[in-house]
Amino acid sequence: MAKVLDLPKLQPFTLGETSTISQRWRKWIKSFEYYIAASGINNKKQQRAILLHLAGPEVQDIFETLEDTGNDLDTAIAKLTSYFEPQKNIPFEHHNFRQTTQLQGETIEQLAIRLKHKVKFCEYGNPNDMIRDQIIEHCSSSRLRRRLLREPELTLEKTVEIGRSFEASERQASQIEADSLKTTDLGVNAIRSKAASSRYPTSIQTGRSNIV
């Protein structure tokens, strides 16, 4: 028998803003699925009870109004998801997706992952193309944007690959330039020190500069 772990509890699901409820519910359910997998509890009826307990009173009140909810976890999740899905606001999801830009310090790969999560709620016919276009338009580097636009038949996979290579090259170039600058500064300081010594020689006996 699998050992049941003492896991931290999930926060209850709150209804909140209706325009984002579908997206938030799916995210909460994903966290719940991770929780159940880690808990070691395999009984479907017990999993269903845990779902309703952790989801909180607002979800419990809704669940009590639904019909044919069964006695297992899968049916309960399907019924609740069906309830929340009609409240999904597609125009808002499109707006939310289009507002996504590359954050400071975020890689192209990380941006693509964020966009993949958001595009699930947009019901686009070609989600990968939409993600690719969003990366091209809203990546923070104009040099990378020009590089991507030169690529014929650019796919999302190729976009991320080029972005990863570009970012690695930028890091390496920055390191080389920083090291070169340090070397240059050391050389300049050495020349200045030598010039100063030749202008003001120091007496070996007194240790003082022979400045007239």
> What summary fits the major beta sheet?
none
**What's the overall geometry?**
elongated
Proportion of strand residues: under 5%
**Sheet/helix structural class:** mainly alpha
Taking all Cα atoms into account, the compactness measure Rg is: 30 Å
SS summary, helix count: 9
Give start-end ranges of low-pLDDT stretches: none
The total count of strands amounts to 0
Order of helices and strands: HHHHHHHHH
Q: Provide the helix percentage.
A: 55-70%
Helix-strand blueprint:
Layout: H1 21-39, H2 44-55, H3 57-65, H4 73-84, H5 90-98, H6 108-119, H7 127-138, H8 142-149, H9 156-199
Helix pairs in contact: 2-4, 6-7
What does this structure look like?
This protein has 212 residues and is an all-alpha fold. The protein has 2 domains: 70 residues; 90 residues. Helices cover 65% and strands 0% of the residues. It contains 9 helices and no strands. Helix 2 packs parallel to helix 4 and helix 6 packs across helix 7. The chain starts with 20 loop residues before the first helix and ends in a 13-residue tail after the last helix.
Supply database-style keywords:
elongated, 212 residues, mainly alpha
Give me a quick take on this structure.
The protein is mainly alpha-helical. It has helices at residues 21-39, 44-55, 57-65, 73-84, 90-98, 108-119, 127-138, 142-149, 156-199. The protein contains 9 helices and no strands.
